[in-house]
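Researcher: Structure for this, please.
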Amino acid sequence: MTTRTVSTTREPDSARFSSVAFTHLARLTDDTGLFEHARHAVARREHGYCTDDAARGLVVIGREVDPSAEALRLAERYLTFLTHAQDATGAFRNRLGFDRVWSDEPGLGDWWGRALWGLGTAAARCPAPWIRREADHAFIQGASRRSGSRRAMAFAALGAAEVLRADPGDEPAASLLSAAATVIGRPGSDQHWPWPEERLTYANAALAEALIAAGDLLDDPPVLADGLRMLTWLLDVQTSDGHLSVLPATGWRRGTPRLRYDQQPIEVAALADACATAAAVTGAPAWHAGVHRCIAWFLGDNDIGRPMWDAATGGGYDGLTPTGPNLNQGAESTLALIATFQRRTSLPAVSSAG
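Model: Predicted structure, token format:
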């Protein structure tokens, strides 16, 4: 049985964290893109790059109110990668080897949705006009397509929502957001499983966030209510004794025992984003508490009481195991860490995360 001793690690200073976190992103980035994996804090070139991570990188830099020159250079690198991955129909390739050869064909999987999330965020928020223009061009091209995957459409919807917040009259974004809500579907009537799928897998809260955004921006109260109901349940089932205990990489199928490990940072980041969106839409304090719980998970208020990031490098650890953190600091986990800590700026001061 794992003994849980909660870490006393304090929340990092915002300026110091941003500096060290983007330093680790720079460590994982070369002149082509963002390396997917690392051994400890050192990039593993043999595993190459992926559109998923370049898109996530564009999201977190796009959220920065006053990005540094170095952060903008990273944004340009990730945007260039995404436009290279996109074909003339708006689909995207995902995996590029270190030899600069694509190993897959253009498609509409999760990477397409995440690409639109990154492009939409950059088009709506980036202070650099040349980045906004190119991101908007690529977003419009990609937003003409539709995927049958719930998660791909949910990720794409998050990019469409960013565009609509900046320009409520944007027709391609509104159409994509509406289509995403339809593909995601409505939660079931069972109060013990109010989810449109029989199995929870990864980045689950993105589905709820997409519905919340669609309900709010498209003025559809039933869809908004569905998204809030799904998120309420998801946060509740992933909370244990006042701290976050997210679903493992293996997921959880309805009616089966739920496993505890290995927990992935992407789950925490998705919850933080969804709770922040719910807080912005409803103003309800409970959602602020949810964001605090997500931040606390990285700081050590988790099932084993250990911090899930390296303060020396700014890297996020790749997973929470029964014996401690997986000390590798790859792109996905580092971006999840950054995205979660970015949500602090919109929070009111509270005395605890519970």
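Researcher: Any notable elements?
Model: The two ends are 24 Å apart (CA to CA). Residues 350-354 have pLDDT under 50 and may be disordered.
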